[in-house]
Amino acid sequence: MAESSQAPLMGRQFTYQQENLLALYQEMEWLSLVINQVICSYLKQEGHENHWLEIPQPPIAPGSSLYADLLIDWELNVFERLALALAMAPSIKPDALDFFFGLNGLIDRPFTEFGGVSDKAFSGFLPTGQTLNFLISANNPEWREHCMAILSHNHRLMAEQVTELMSVDSGLPAWAGVYRMSEHWLHYFVTGEHLRPELSTSFPAHPLDTPMTWDDLVLDYSVMSKLDDIRAWLSHGKTLMQDWQLDKKVKAGYRAVFFGPPGTGKTLTAALLGKSTGREVYRVDLSMVVSKYIGETEKNLSRVFDAASYKDWILFFDEGDALFGKRSEGSSSNDRHANQLTGYLLQKIEDFPGTVIIATNLKSNMDDAFTRRFQSMVQFTMPGVEERLQLWQNAFRGVCDLADDVDLPQIAKDYEVAGGHVINILRQCALNAVRRNERTVYKADLIQSIRQEFQKGNKIIL
């Protein structure tokens, strides 16, 4: 019965993917005709008086394919549609680009203006930014501006990483880079499944997830009150900005700073804010962002902000004072560059329409110019005795059995620990128990694990 019930579902899924693929192949046929006509007009061959804009575009209708839906929803013009088709051609129908392999009879070599590169592992033609420029403006030089817009990093196709212009070695024209469609968007156009962007130099951030729920968060009442304000904005911000026309009074987006000692719940809270409001949270990897080369840090950050600008994401910067620290009053070139970077980041955050959360251990490390522009400053303090007891109870519940000699209220009273410390202690206690082939944790286990955790911070308990 199970197999027979799954068969119709698999059949529908197969048909769905066939329809999506058919739309892409139709787009490739149109691309082939366009390329042929552009080259024909450029070389003044027979039929050169015709124009590629006269070639009918494949019809699109809402719901006919995922590719059609994107063209309609994003209101892409014919130049942008051509760019998409060119970028996906090597993966869908590489022979659609074979027209570009023609030789210039005068010099017996490929046409420089066609752009493109070849690779040992791929025998086909790989289009570059110059290839797109040729198709758009070879016969209409004034249309170069369309190509410039499409290849700009803030164009939606580039910002959402549908397409990418690969970087080139220093000294080479930027448009000499390979122009391609990202694999995760190509996967989406066929299957309908949106893969999360992977951590890479082109996207230095990774998803921040947690199996915990909002009810698991143990914080002081005053802290929870401020977090409820942030949750309220995440839930009703669009209504306020659009229906209440608050966008005429304030800038879009929401900016918050979480500060306090390590282990007090800053990262967990950021993850839970996303989870409880149905948003993706991306933690920016500062090790991949910060560069010793002038200008590279800004580029790395732009990739994150540009990718997130069209999505309802929360961007989380941990140890944010590494990027958003106080500006120096020095006059050296390094000081000036650091100050310029700080100003650049401030502007990026102010212009970002989504939610940004910056976490730091010390508020005093943050530049005042940043903190003045943040809507919320949330201080995460070390939990009190009642919060610590709840943290201990939540941690061991459903994991380990506590022996009769374990007095959690007394443990909570005697040892000042944060939630992150409690989880580390739980892990060590569980490890000790499983070595004994049991689930029971004794007072000695608990004290030993607390002692080990305190030693990390050079603290000693008797």
From TrEMBL:
Task: Provide the AAA+ ATPase domain boundaries.
Answer: 252-384
Any one GO BP annotation for this protein: proteolysis
Listed A to Z, the keywords are: ATP-binding, Hydrolase, Metalloprotease, Nucleotide-binding, Protease
Cleavable signal peptide: none
**Entry-linked Pfam families:** AAA
Classification via SMART domains: AAA (SM00382)
Q: Does the keyword ATP-binding apply?
A: yes
EC number(s) per UniProt? 3.4.24.-
Family annotation (InterPro entries): 26S_Proteasome_ATPase (IPR050221), AAA+_ATPase (IPR003593), ATPase_AAA_core (IPR003959), P-loop_NTPase (IPR027417)
Query: Which GO-annotated molecular functions does the record name?
Result: ATP binding; ATP hydrolysis activity; metallopeptidase activity
Write down the top EC class of this protein: hydrolase
For this protein, the record's CDD domains field holds:
RecA-like_protease
Q: Does the keyword Hydrolase apply?
A: yes
What domain of life does the UniProt record list for this protein's source?
Answer: Bacteria
Which family, according to the similarity comment? Belongs to the AAA ATPase family.
UniProt name for this protein: ATP-dependent zinc metalloprotease FtsH
